Each structure stands twice: as structure tokens, then as C-alpha cells.
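Recap quiz, item 2
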Amino acid sequence: MFGSVLSALSVGFLKTLEIFGLTLVGAIPLGLLICLGSMSRLQPLKYVIRCIVWVIRGTPLMLQLLVIYYGPGLILGDNWWGSGEHGRFVATIAAFIINYACYFSEIFRGGIQSIPVGQNEAGYVLGLTKSQIFFRITLLQVIKRIVPPMSNEIITLVKDTSLSRIIALQELIWAGQSFMKSAGIIWPLFFTGIYYLAFSGLLTILFNRIEKKLEFFRV
Amino acid sequence: MKSVKLLAIVSVLCMTLLAGSLSAFAGEAADSDLAAIQEKGVIVVGITDFAPMDYKDDNGEWIGFDADLALIFAQEIGVDVEFQEIDWDNKILELNAGSVDCIWNGMTLTEEVDAAMECTGTYALNAQVVVMKADALAEYPDVESMKELSFAVEAGSAGEAVAVEAGLEVNSVQNQAAALMEVAAGTSDACVIDKTMADAMTGEGTSYADLGYAVALSSEEYVVGFRKGSDAAAVLDEMITKWIQDGTLADLSAKYDNAVSVAEAAEDAEAESEPESK
């Protein structure tokens, strides 16, 4: 019994890891784009982007998953995700990337705006271009400053992956619950907690290391 | 000041867009849903893990009373079957969004189901039973004696409806499994769930070995649901009538330890069998 539960939970956990990994890969660059958009001097662009961030951060991720997965079929009459597990997975990744990119963008914006303007001015005086200033002076300092809030958000992501069960994606919590529904056994559901704990523990150690590595920036 | 105004306009615009797209809700079925399924070459059957109707065998293949029946139906209309596990709360959404073609999972015919789906006739019977600690069963022989107990029921389920009708004090939880867990954990005194499920999930070999049931609140009917307006429901309905008469359903029930009570044939056949006493 323990063996079959463990193997079913591990299959679910793999799905959870896939959501986690792909979300980070997609949301970090998209977040940077959204961040630059929300600081743009082009006023309409800035307000549209900030409005999108407001909607995404202001509504539950669970609701966004439902709208993104069922919306096309219900509203447009064409279920473009296709049937089956694959469609659910793609829709989940899309929802998570959009949601997390918006949160990341605000962290990035905070990081960039926390760098003193004097450094920019000094850069101009030395004849550097805007992009040279951003990539050679600002960016590394920003990375150092956003590590703690990013680690916070990324650890939240580990657990948020469980929300995807609302559109019947078979991740870790789904795998645990299925034993409750089919065999009437409760402990596998609670046992999923061990997986989340172990994985977020690993991430905590990783982020501590990164923070230590970046300590040489301290003045 | 100017920017505040602009922000207000943009927000209003977003809201209108959102509201507009939501009100454009339209789940119109194609001219012939059956033809669309046949063209696709596969029927996607929405299920949950629900023994003995739909569950996985040791090789991970879907079997069960409903799963086997769905396979026969698919053969008859010349398509493959794809079983898709869904969240039971979202079954109507799944149908209307086109991510599944039918719901075939020991679904009780309720007013809500009848209004939202194109349903077949009854193919099996079920009951809503009161599950509680087995050693307390003797103390509560009927509904009257249960008035002071607290009940857990699945939100929106048939069990909830009959419990409320019987004047019982209910707490709605997410699903039937959660309702059972409430009873096991002692957070509710009893729960009202499907008889089919109670048979499968209580007793030896489960986490609910000390639970049991004695009282049934209602009897009800299992149907298969298609998208509203689908012509596939009528086609399946004809086959069901045939399967009841030629014993296909009875044989299938025997295969699953007679855990499923097959429906009686409709009107005329029923009149014939009525004089026989059981």
C-alpha cells in the first residue's frame, strides 16, 4: 500500500515540479517586460500595463485558472486548449505565468527604483548610454536586492501549484485526494505535505546560498 | 489630476470589457452533436474516480460499470473513448466548454442536472443514505431520532437536498469524500451520501472501517448527461432501453458484485413485471 501511494504521489509531484519550473522560466522574463512597461514614459502603455497588473493581482488565481481554461469554450464557443490532460496543463502554465509575472514585475520595479538616481547621473556624466547604465551598473545591484522578496514569492509558488486541481490537473494534491475518493484512505492527502515541506526546505537553503554569494556587494 | 482621470477611464473600460465578455456566455451546441463527435473520432467521457462506476484496475486502465458501458456505446457509434477525470463541481462547465462530451459517472438526476444537460433515461438506481459511526446506528433507527445530530453533506448534491428537506441540520462541504472524513474525524455526527459510494468506501480495508449506514432518505436515478440540445442523448437512450431488456446491464452489474441496481425497463415492461413480488 505504502509503495503504491508513494509512486502515485511521486507522479503527482513531478507534475507539480513541471508547473513550478515552467512558471519560473516564463514568468521571470515576462515579469521584467511588464516591469519595464509599467515604468514606461509612454503614458497610455504605462496605464494599460498597470491596469492589467491590478486585475491579475486583484483577483484570485483560482478564478483566473477557471476563466483561462473554461473561458474560450464558454465565451468563444471554441475550446482551444483541446481535450485531455495536455490542454489542462498548458492552460495551467499560461495562468501561472501571467499571474506570477505580475507579482514579479512589482518586485523588479521596487528593486530598480531603489537604486539611487545619483548612480544614473554619474553614468551619464561618464558618457555611458542608458542601456549600458542599466546592464552594467543597475542590474546586478537590483538582483542582490530582490533576492529576499523573490524567494518569498517563489516559495509561495511551490504551494500555489496545488490550485491547478480546480481544473482537474493531476498534480500532487489531486494524487493525494484520489486515494480519499477511491479507496477511502485519508493519510496520503496529509502525506503530500512532506513533499511540499522538503521541496521548500531545499529552496530555502538554495536562496540562503545565493544571498551569501551576493554579499560582496555590501559597501 | 489628469492621470487620476485617465486611470478611472481605463479601469471602467476594463470592467466593461470583462462584464461584456462574461455576458456573451453562449454554449450553443452544433447542429448534430453526435455527428461532431463521430467526425472527431473520439468521445471524451467526463468521470471521477468512483468505484464501482469508474475506477482504475491494476494496470491503470479505467474499468467499472459506467466505463464498460461507455466503451460499448462508443463501439456502437464507431468512435474511441477517452476518459477524462474532472472536478465534479465543474461538470456543467466542462460540458459547455467542450472539454468533455458527456458526464457518465453514476450521476444522480436532479433538477439542476436536468436543466443544464441533455439527459438519457434512467439506467441504474441509487439511494441517499445516512452514514454514521457503526456503533451508534442502533440509537438512530429513523429520521425523527436524528434531528439533534449535525450532518455533513456535499455542497449542491442530492444528499444535501434530501437532508434539508428532512429538516436536518447540515454543513455543506466540498465533496462526498470530505463529508465522510467529517464523520470519521467527529466534526460532524453523520453525513448523507450516495449508497453506491457508502458501499464502496465504508467497512473493512478503508479508513472508515467503523462507519456504517442503516437509514435511506430517498431513492434516486442515475442518468448520463450530454450538452444541452445534443442529439446523442436520445441515441444512447434507445440503446439503454435495449440493454435493460436484453440483460446487458444485469450481466454488467453481476460483473461488479451486483453493487449497481439496474433500472427497470420503462413503462410497458414495468407494467408486466409488477405482479411479481420480490
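The domain at 126-220 of chain B is CATH 3.40.190.10 (D-Maltodextrin-Binding Protein; domain 2).
The two ends of chain B are 83 Å apart (CA to CA).
End of item.
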